[in-house]
Amino acid sequence: MDVGMTALVVCALYLVVTLVTGLLPGLRVSHSVTGYVAADRSMNLLVLYFVLGASVFSSFAFLGGPGWAYSRGAAAFYILAYGTLGMVPLYFFGPRTRRLGGRFGFVTQAEMLAHRFDSRALSAVLALVTVVTLVPYLTLQMKGAGYILSTLSGGAISAPVGAAVTYGVVVIYVLASGVLGVGWTNTFQGMFMMVVAWFLGLYLPWRLYGGVGAMFERLATERPELLTAPGLGGDGTAWSWWAYSSAVLVSAVGFSMWPHFFMKSFAAKSDKVLRQTVVLYPTFQIFLVPILLIGFSAVLAYPGISPADTVLPELLTRLELSPLLVGLVCAGALAASMSSGDAILHAAASVAVRDGAAPFWPALRDDHRQRSMIRALVLVLATVAFYFAVASKISIVALLLGAYGGMAQIFPVVFAAFYWPRATGKGALAGLLAGGVVNCFFLVWPAAKPWPMHEGVYGLVANVAVLVVVSLLTRPQDPERVRAHVDA
Amino acid sequence: MSINQEPGEPTRDPGPSNKAAAEPLPRGLVFFPPGTPQAVRRRRVLFVYIVIVAAVALVWPVYSWVAAPRPLILGLPLGLAWVVGWLGVVFGALLWLYRGDRHLGEAEDDG
Fold first, then answer.
1. Predicted TM-score of the model (pTM)
2. What is the dihedral of CA A29, A31, A37, A42, to 10 degrees?
3. Which of A3, A176, A203, B67 makes a 20 to 30 Å CA pair with A81?
4. Residue of A nearest to B51 (CA)
5. Do B88 and A241 make contact, defined as CB atoms within 8 angstroms?
6. Average pLDDT of chain A?
7. Which residues of A281-303 are buried (b: 16+ CB within 10 A; e: fewer)?
8. What's the complex ipTM?
């Protein structure tokens, strides 16, 4: 059996275990919307820890992280820096969100905000933003999965077939088990990813240089500019401190706002479990260090790899590792893609129906019908993302880059919902729209920026200013409704 | 809000008492619900200060003072070791905060 075949067998076994792990929870979760979207509010510490960890670390982290370290050096430290700060808001927002969910039956972020601000328009806008943002994200995960299987098989399995097989598995367990299927598969995938990342991150520097310290000693001597923050930009010239610092802050602000991440607060079993998950999160976050070590290990040993995102598969090919190891690493990369892809697919379908359609379509308020509609949309969105992954020429990366700044625009709305009683629905909606428009404007016309900062910073300034001014100019919300959120 | 309830409809939950509901809403920021113990308030405020210090330490200008390849700390370049160190500080601060908060909502959690 050759290397590719052995590795493919390992990946196939991984897919089978994932499928079984994803199908079993469906046997015990209720057949309601709360069961499908919020796991009957029953997630324990183990599942919540891995679902929050693994759904954030996608194929972008597993393939893109080493790519950044390889080509942009210290610029990649920003990924670790924003993660350090980004989870903290959930310690405060999460338990309030969970309690409100239990009290009023919320299962999505937009649903909770629409209630606080008494605004169906806000619900619709958030649903639109969620779908427009998450579908490109899902597309990238599919492309990553297809690329891995195609590379591994030497082209015998085409990228579209690889993506179809991988995401066929995802669709089956998401349809059958909803978020609990996502949770248990993410637990398996998260453990898998961590073991693979730590092993490779320590093994590669040892094999190529004799150890991590020895590797950085040589890099500091031969490529000091690569280890000097803020590192290099995408074009190979020095990255600016403006860009680095603002990227850290905007990404930290937006980190906990991603709908597929935030809405897991509704699935937590208790406040205590949610707080424990946030407290332990840095132990997951630290796995980015070995991910970066993988990229740094290739800098002096294998210069000139292009595109940089292929550094991990290139290393596997050039080092002539054992077929079993190659298979395990590729299965780890598939796990990274699938653990984000399943959460994204599930969240996008849930939010689209729950927040985008149900408030305007009374027939969808029937629990059984709503659950069926969410499951139907899982299929539709998976098909749309697959189309973009294999057929469309639209620049998905460009769409996704705009999404990061866009997600940060939800933060002021959530903050105001909990901490500023005077904030009104008109203020929240106007702020969100202003922030989104400014963010998109500077994304499309970066030359118009007064300073070379992340466009999300400009969006946040406009967002907060408009939210405050419009709120103060409009009638306060019903005190009873506001107190339910502020005092939660 | 249940799925049968629109954002504009009154909540099913009775919420706070009528007396509390009749009081005007505060105009400023309200960080703590009524009845939050002073010790919890102090601990949370201190925690937020620690996170702000961490945020300042991870961006320009503070980070630029330590953004060098050398010295190597535990085999990592100074710029990377600095970020990992602050991840450790935030982890420690979260553990300390949780130690004080661990009894909050316990009755509800156990129920």
1. 0.91
2. -30
3. A203
4. A85
5. no
6. 92
7. bbebbbbbbbbbbbbbbbbbbee
8. 0.93
